[in-house]
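Table S2 (continued). Query chain:
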Amino acid sequence: MNKPKMTTEKGNSRVLMFLGQLERLNGEAMLADAEIARQITAKILHLIQTQEKTRKEIMSKGSGGMEVGDRDPLTFYSNITLLDYVSLPVPGGGRRVGVLVSKGGTGILLQMLLSASKEWPPSEELMLQLHSVLAKVGPKDRKFGVKARLNGALNVTVNLLKQNLQNPKLLLPCLQVLRVYSSNSVNAVSLGKNGLVELMFKIIGPFSKKNTSLLKVALDTLGALLKSKTNARRAVDRAHVPVLLYIYQDWHRNDTRHRHMLIRKGILGCLKNITNIKLGRRAFLDADGMRILYNTSTECLPVRTLDPLINTSSLIMRKCFPKNRLPLPTIKSVFHHQLPHIPAGGPVAQLYSQPPGVDDVVDESDDNEDAEAENDTENEEDKDLHNDDIETDISKLRPRETPSRPFEELKIYERFFLELSEDFQPVPWTWTPSTSPGAKMAAVTTPKAQHTRGRSWSGICCRSLNSRQHRQPPRLTGVVCPRRGGVGEESPVEEGAEEDGDEGAVLEVPDTALLLPLHDPDLYVEMVKSTRSVPQYSQVAYPDYFGHVAPTFREHILERVYGVQRTKIFQDIERLIHPNDILDKVVYDLDIQSSPVVDDGESLKFNSQFESGNLRKAIQVRRYEYDLVLNSDINSNHYHQWFYFEVSGMCVGAPYRFNIINCEKSNSQFNYGMQVLMYSVQEAIGGRPRWVRTGADICYYKNHFSRSSIAAGGQKGKSYYTMTFSMTFNHKDDVCYFAYHYPYTYSTLKMHLQKLEALRTPQVYLRQDILCETLGGNGCPLLTITAMPESTSNDQICQFRNRPLVFLSARVHPGETNASWVMKGTLEFLMGTSPLAQSLREAYIFKIVPMLNPDGVVNGNHRCSLSGEDLNRQWQSPSPELHPTIYHTKSLLQYLTAIQRAPLVFCDYHGHSRKKNVFMYGCSLKETVWQTNISATSCDLHEDLGYRTLPKILSQIAPAFSMASCSFVVERSKEATARVVVWREMGVQRSYTMESTLCGCDQGKYKGLQIGTRELEEMGAQFCVALLRLKRLTCPLELRNHAHLLDVESDFIETRCKVTSPSTYVLEDEEHSFMEEVDYSAESGDELEHEPDVADTHDNHLSDSESNSQRDALT
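Corresponding output:
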């Protein structure tokens, strides 16, 4: 049992003996003793290889055999031999190298290298061994480049390389070391000045079967050197770009069996780094690089294993595609609205202070061109993990209920809260449905309430919905009329066409009354007449006129086809290579407002001149391909995302391709299965009036259109993005509409409110006021919904007045139409006749602003109002002139706070363009502090967890809702949003933004499905159910009066949900990657409008008190 130990001790003593002999030889320094030194070293190696403990002790003790003398090559040789052994890889990782680095081995090696270089001539064998070990140690030492530069090792290796260009044996380890040196950008610049770039071009060359390993390392070294912009400019100045292209062509031509793909990829890597600078891109184009890489890549397409070459070539070609400005006279919106005043220094003042032609300048500059930082790359993951935007000032994280306005100013808003003082004394009155489609909703209150509505007072403009200020009667766009032999031609029908008695001109409107109780085509037209738009629209789009019936079939998230993005990009590159094949014909142009539609009978016809429409220009590129340009938000030069336009004149079965070329966000759910929406008039006439998800080969990528720094917040070198999809039409002479998401216009809202009034029962207290008038002259509706008291007794009146308030709003961002569909579901549920709806009305008073930005919706904006500003960034200090809807909505909340009736819940409905599912953002001091490094006492972090109750309930009953995606962190950039301001200034603990996906769900009942209006409306209804459960959790005693509703609620949840969220959640911020490389070129700050994707890693359960209350409520 003791024998192994004795053997080890004996081995250690023998090693020490041999090391002593080496020391004596080192002292004598006789070259004749070289053979003896080799023999001793061989014995030491044998002992180390056979006895692991001996090897570890040698490494840990740093014995004399590893010390460096400046004079003796014998000790050098023995040291290098030992180090070469310990640097060999072992199973389980490079532990030997790691130990060597941790013990200072890198410094010893570099000292050896410097000492050996002083001998002349230097020992080739010694240099070979030394560089071989350095090549293995260097990648394991993060400071290797700095250490080498400080020790003067760079020039030693470069000089050795110059002297041995014809010696492949020594050349290979030298190149391997230089490759590690060059990974440090400061070293790369220094080596470039020392002529290393030129040396590399002497080593690399055309196709050869000899020394391929050497060539591969040389290309890697050159690629590392060319990451430095200084070296890239040096390569361009010495005309090395054509040389690289020639070498690549030669290897592509001769490597027919694809055995040297890494060499070809190395050449492309060098080209990729050179083309990072403007001079490199210009040299690449001058050398016909686009054609060369396009042809070679096309030949590689059939071979799947060559995809890395194709992807790199594609990236280079996209980068070098000449930057162009958008084909527009100006990037400002084609429409302009004169504001009451333009704040100095504001976005509109900056926009219109630019001289003509300066707003869209092509900028091909390189970002930070002269910066040569030592660390050339960033760790994107680390950057994402550290969010500098999180609020760290605890004083700002505490809700403060400080009145920001005198109560005397707020008293005028008492008129909107008649229910808080209503006495319901018997007054004879009768209610009759309004006969005028545009009339204002009749009030279900006393004559006093009817008398006060529709009036004006200081600072508040009220305007009834039955105004008759028309500019031109609305007409349907592209009406399809029956004709002999099938479907007829398109012809616009003016209002009153039916009265002419011409049966051939009468449109066959599908009967959707049973399926759409809230839709009436004639009523919609009447609503359009009182809607004011900046372009003065006089047309009505078919989908808004016919209505939308949600399809009964499921629409799955589209599975991405491999290589689709690459194919689309290659088709774009062909435009530059074969310019004669491009038509470049403008077929629709809103900048020519007198006649925007070009109808030559050979092209598609486009139109967007209707409410919420957005398409500025259409250019026919090829026979079946069109570039589309979206219009900026009015009084703005950006925010391109929402689109809604009409297409007609199509050929059946033709593969059309549509490219929206001025998208701004760096990524989109179109890359993850989302499809565009299409509405076919022929399908509608056939009894299927509905929006359907459609489009194939959908992808989203950066294009060659330069984004002006003026529109990019001062950032230079940015580009627009292309959203492209292919479409095949099934009907001849059809009229089709395409939209970013399910449209929901302002006129649709007014129609729905009128229809809801008609469906009201006597048990419902419903009042509609016009909160204010917008900049465009449209009314902003304010709804009050609750239950009528059962009697006029004092107890009932008291209970009526003292019901807690819930404040809801939606559609502050016009392009987030899904928010309106969720709101529609909420309104229909609240006005419904079910016991749950009645119970909910009895529990709360609802104050609802269903559309905070009517002007933006009407005029087809995506983000802003007519002020050119994001209204959800104006809540801190809204202007009554420029932001009237926000100013007066905030004033309502301030009034409630002043009278001690702050809402129990505030929720603003939104849509999210880059995440799936439905989720909430809330406000929490504790969870915000947890995400930072600031210190705080437990007293500072005291907080009621009630803000989690509502989203937790939703995660249990709503299959589309994801608690894992919720966040309760407060960020500085969101301090002027509704959610944060209502939480901070009004003290509303349950202040939320509810985000609904534009794409679909990746969990729960709807996993793998795209979201539709049915699911969105269901979400609005389930939000109401969650509020009812919230009421019962906070007031369990009230259940005694409503115990019979428990089964009804359970049945509702079970039949419509059947899914509960897991108790543990992990936020997956990023989508799954595809097999092909997708270049999103993510830019910071592109998604300013949405809340951050912060992982909710804390307790997702209800608090103990809430859980107990829930158990009490259900037993």
